[in-house]
Fold:
Amino acid sequence: MDLMKKLMKNKQFVFFSILALIVVLIAIFAPWIAVKNPYDAIMTDSLIPPGEKYMWGTDRLGRDIFSRIVYGTRPSLIMTFTLVSVVFLTGTGFGILAGYFGGSIDIVIMRFADMMISFPGLVLAIAVAGLLGPSMTNAVLAIALVSWPKYARLARSLVLKIKNNTYIEAAIVGGARTRKIIGRYLIPNMILTMIVTATTDIGTMMLELASLSFLGFGAQAPTPEWGLMLNEGRTYITKASWLIMYPGIAIITVVVIFNMLGDSIRDILDPKEN
Structure:
């Protein structure tokens, strides 16, 4: 109840939560919101500018831009939340193992994490996505591969701090199993910090996925995905600017919403702020 009161008192959290909910609802009810099938190509309506017939115009294949933007919320949100979940679980899991057991396990995990961090993240993700082949699934795997070390290092530092407490030592002396110590004492005392980190990364990871799609390593045609739509429209930037304007606005708007939502959650949940 105290947490709910804190959330409701934070006006920024309430405002951006409503906006985020609207984005999610758009994704859920896309078939009812979109005025046309986003996959229907009508060549006679190619590159029609925004107007009465097509509110946001059409692309080179005569597909309705508004409908494709609406449907584009689905792959963007699904892949972003999948990516955040994979990175969160993988990084936190490795960090707990490294911090709690130490020794050779810690050395192997942390040295591998250091090696991954030494490369520019997006460049390495592009290389991995290129090796795996272009698809949204491979884009998620590529970004996850370069993003988990951040969570592993954070989780490890929290575990090292927590496991020196007397109640952990008492549990070990009392014969508590490792699984019980991790599940009952370590995770509950570090989960808030890890959640705060994950929520603030939602917007960043959405932008990285859109970047890979723009470069041709993510979503593939004819999927209505915003990064891919930017790539398809860049050729016509001088004579059909709406092809990149509306997908660009969609990306910026949603990224800002989730970034601000993450910031507000950090302000509320971060133990350092309380």
Summary: Residues 2-42+56-273 form a domain with the MetI-like fold fold (CATH 1.10.3720.10). DSSP finds eleven helices and no strands in the chain. The CA atoms of residues 83 and 140 lie 6 Å apart.
